[in-house]
């Protein structure tokens, strides 16, 4: 599974246009694609003819509620293409999560627990470098930075690269950067000058495909359709098809983006064949167990096995529903330090929560 964020802190550079049209082009190649709308404006949802107000759940519920998984908020758009929509209430996430631990990994945790497997997850980011964008970048192995021929868009590109370098330096998270020249009019000297500057400073990261300026892209968005459906003979439709082909051609290189590799970043409960995988890093422990409602809070619980890397893990077959649990490390009961979803019990302590759905 390849997870790509489409990001640039400058608004109006075509992030949403790139997200929905690239997703549609990949789906046309029979790739299973999920668009995650992380912009409170919800334009990626509207551009795929999905009005978030018509549905009970959105990305706000996914990020804020332990009982809502991405699968429960996903809406089918067309064959091979789904969307998890956003609405204006998503803007409240930054304030509501400001003091919560693990707030920048919430999207990653939810993506890891998806029951359905996608070939591509494309995350449409807001025009800012805040908590929503940090969630997207932390969950991604790749990013596409659309740059239109303007000074401000070019400045936004530099800022995004600085942010990505910060993530690499602070938490060791590597993101492969792809710069996309977007909304280009090759007939003007100014556009050609900006393209030259982008290639001069970011040539090693540039995608070969260039997306041309055309009003048809805006017309298609107003109809809630990707350009490939609205006007398949249009030049932009062919360019997005070429962009999808370019990315598909890199699949061999990006095998590292499979879900098991993302698991190294976030060790929380994961839905796996046979049940739920519980894991915790405790290199100096002698005995680690997991207990919870699924075994009547037995002190014996389920024993975890230690790996060579100091991570203890086991798979427990538990039924559907929401389950509270805790680890017992050498006799000491602790919550899961890598799972932000918790419930306060009758003793004022926090129990970790895992949701299992059929």
List the helices and strands and how they pair.
Blueprint (H helix, E strand, L loop, with lengths): L1 E5 L8 H14 L4 E5 L5 H5 L11 H6 L5 H4 L1 E4 L2 E4 L8 H4 L9 H7 L7 E5 L6 H9 L2 E6 L3 H21 L4 E9 L4 H14 L3 E7 L3 H7 L4 H4 L4 H14 L10 H4 L7 E3 L2 E7 L6 E5 L9 E2 L1 E2 L4 E6 L4 E9 L2 E3 L7 E3 L5 E7 L2
Parallel strand pairs: 1-5, 1-6, 2-4, 2-5, 6-7, 7-8
Antiparallel strand pairs: 3-4, 9-10, 10-14, 11-12, 11-15, 13-14, 15-16, 15-18, 17-18
Helix pairs in contact: 1-12, 6-7
Question: Would you mind describing this structure in some detail?
Answer:
There is one protein chain. By secondary structure, this protein is α/β, with parallel strands linked by helices. It folds into 2 domains: 2-260, Rossmann fold (3-Layer(aba) Sandwich); 268-356, Immunoglobulins (Immunoglobulin-like, Sandwich), CATH 2.60.40. It is 32% helix and 26% strand. It contains 13 helices and 18 strands. The chain has helices spanning 15-28, 43-47, 59-64, 70-73, 93-96, 106-112, 131-139, 151-171, 189-202, 216-222, 227-230, 235-248, 259-262; strands at 2-6, 33-37, 75-78, 81-84, 120-124, 142-147, 176-184, 206-212, 270-272, 275-281, 288-292, 302-303, 305-306, 311-316, 321-329, 332-334, 342-344, 350-356. The strands form 3 sheets. An 8-stranded mixed β-sheet has the order 3-4-2-5-1-6-7-8, with helices on both faces. A hairpin with a 5-residue loop joins strand 17 (342-344) and strand 18 (350-356). The radius of gyration is 22 Å and the shape is elongated. The two termini are 21 Å apart. 44% of the residues are buried. Mean pLDDT is 86; it is low at 256-267.
